[in-house]
Amino acid sequence: MFAKAIVLTSLAGAFLSGAAIAQQAPAPQPATPPAASQPSKPPVDGWAGEVAPVKSTDGLTLDENQSKVVKIVSDYFSALNDMKGNFVQIGADNKRMRGKFFVKRPGRFRFDYSRPSRQIIVSDGVNMAIQDLDLNNEDRLKLDDTPFRMLLRKDVDLLRDAKIYEVQQSEDQIVLGLQDKSPDTPGRIRLYLATKPTLELKEWVTTDAQGLDTRVEVSALVKGEDIDAKIFKIQQLGAHRTTPN
After folding, report:
1. Which terminus, N or C, of the chain has the lesser number of Cβ atoms within 10 Å?
2. Alpha carbon of 91 to those of 11, 22, 42, 170, 174: distances in Å?
3. Which of 102, 84, 95 has its CA nearest to residue 43?
4. Do the beta carbons of residue 43 and residue 216 sit within 8 Å?
């Protein structure tokens, strides 16, 4: 899952808010403002910022089979407790960034990007921080302003909480496109889950306001192993940092 995020990211992402993000940074330094067309730093893409809206504001009217598929995905996320694995983030420019991720429901996740990026995306269950250790700055926003909220809450119910705009089911895959029903959470996400040999999150995709996709693929998933809650604490920049195994 997770991402953006999501893993689970994605679980879920991307992800993912049209709300403004308050950036916390060290003392001001002279800098040349980037051109308006310059893309965000790769790790931020698909995790925060303006996200393309769904054309239909109401989502699909689900038939019985589609509702069953959505419930299957809800039950999958509801059953997740602790999970960790590897991820690959693929930006719109096809640049790949790799790392490890950790999830502890409800609401906590951490994505550690491998060098040379030195980026960390971490949620403590209330806030999500996107930290750049090289530049010594971070973007921070409320977890409730991202689609991760509905995927990692204590009681996951996508039929209740999400607008569904895409449902596909094949012999070996489920694709689910969704957006939080809350008007304060405009981000959207498309989930891909394998169904064989068992149901498992494989990747998620978010689309920014320019129509560019960010994809996060997850692998080597380990579930049920207790993960130390301390690694989900948002640590101050420049301080001695705890690095998960």
Report:
1. C
2. 17, 23, 7, 26, 22
3. 95
4. no
Check if the beta carbon of residue 51 is closer than 8 Å to that of residue 188.
yes
Pinpoint the alpha helices (H) of the chain.
Answer: 64-79, 148-152, 158-161
Strands (E), 4-126: 22-24, 82-90, 96-104, 108-113, 119-124
Residue 198 contacts residue 28 (beta carbons within 8 Å): no
| Model pLDDT for residues 61-79, shown as the tens digit of each residue | 999 999 999 999 999 999 9
Contact 1, 217 (CB under 8 A): no
Q: What angle do CA 169, 170, 176 make, to 5 degrees?
A: 30
Tens digits of residue pLDDT in 15-50: 333 333 333 334 444 444 444 444 444 455 556 544
Nearest to 77 by CA among 168, 172, 147: 147
pTM over 0.90: no
Cβ neighbours, 10 Å, residue 183: 8
**Pair of tokens at residue 179:** 């957006």
Contact 168, 174 (CB under 8 A): yes
